[in-house]
Amino acid sequence: MRRTAHLIKTSVSVAALIGCLGMTTPITASAADAAAIEKGKKVAFDRKKGNCLACHQIEGGSLAGNIGPPLVAMKARFPDYDKMKAQIADARVNNPNTIMIPFGPHKVLSAEEIELVSQFIYTL
Amino acid sequence: MNKIANVLTVACLVVASFATQATPEQDLKEFREHYYKKFPNVPKNDFINGVYAVDPASREQWEAFEEFPSYEIFVDKGEELFNKPFANGKGFADCFPNYKKGIRQNYPYFDTKSGKVVTLEGAINKCLKDNGEKPYKWKTGNIAYVSAYLAYLSRGNKLNIKIPDDPGAMAAYNRGKKHFYAKRGQLNIACADCHFYYPGSKIRADILSPALGHPTGFPVYRNKWAGASAKGDGMGTLHRRYGGCNKQVRAKPFKAQSDEYRALEYFHTYMSNDMEVNGPSQRK
Which CATH class is domain A30-122? Predict the structure, then answer.
């Protein structure tokens, strides 16, 4: 999943990327990707892990909060996967006073978990 | 983006007010205006009602609860305890001569002699100790009942917290202010994040209450504190709630009535000056 995104990013324009990824991702995702995405979803929804639903509406999750923006159309908002992943790892990079948890530096999620969550979020 | 800009602006204001050592009066003015702007349709004295001031959906059910409140029997228990003579023949009334007129509005205050912030709960236990009685446990049970009784007698009185011209008082005030705005815990979230920047927003299914008016309603009866898993009867003090909110962000809570929480209560209550005491209250 991650590698696919990188490849496309370097070969097509941003505008084309948005349209193209939106249509093709579900079809091109391999079995391994699908398993990673499923794992990422679990980490994201687990109250003791990401607990992203505390603040964000995410498709497939219930009782979501609304402190942060709904996580939709992620590829349009983050043409660059790494930028989105950096936001998830440490939101203070973009907003020093953010309420969002510094998941990486505060070791709330491991590097692997951040990668899995990011892959899941990028499908939204 | 706008929201982010707003948050940043407010953050800068907060930092600026630290830098220039704003007076408590200036802090209070800014603090309030922030909420009045955020909730232009909430009548000013309605902030004493916690989350129900900003969440019309749950308000009706809450008002129904307040008709036959679960805390009533605990106010009665508090009255009984208050009137039970001590072994030395004296009683609480000797420590709190004005209790019938209501005294809740004057706590916490800064005692220039001891250099400490005195909370109502602290004064209740000091009264017991000074009279050779065993003090109560801090967060639940008898302390919450007596505090609830004294709050009940003070309903409608306006909070009147003073910061005397004393370096110790200013130090306590600033310590409390710092606690309120500082990020803490593994989750790195400040009291202010939840109750200053985002009141009215939902965190999971809970709507966040404004910090303005928080202390007026304490102690509270919480359904959550009455469940079998809480092993309690529902009643709890303000410091119990502080501990719970610290734990939510995976911070180690301070002890109830520690210097830290008394300082926090001093700042937190000062911010609600002139608002009516309406404790005890009913909460989810």
Answer: mainly alpha
Contacts of B187 in chain A (CB under 8 A): 101, 106, 108
By C-alpha distance, which of B223, B208, B257 is closest to B237?
B257
Q: How far is A9 from chain B (nearest CA, A)?
A: 25
Number of Cβ within 10 Å of residue B110's Cβ equals: 22
pLDDT at res. A60: 94
B82-111 tens-digit pLDDT: 999 999 999 999 999 999 999 999 999 999
Per domain, the residue ranges of chain A are: 30-122
Model pTM score? 0.89
Active site residues of B: 245
B51 touching A, CB under 8 A?
no
**Chain B nearest CA to A98, separation (Å):** 8
- The residue with greater pLDDT, B250 or A17, is B250
Token pair in block for residue B191: 């009291």
Q: Does B127 touch chain A (CB under 8 A)?
A: no
B118-127, pLDDT tens digit by residue?
A: 999 999 999 9
Cα Rg, chain A, nearest whole Å: 14
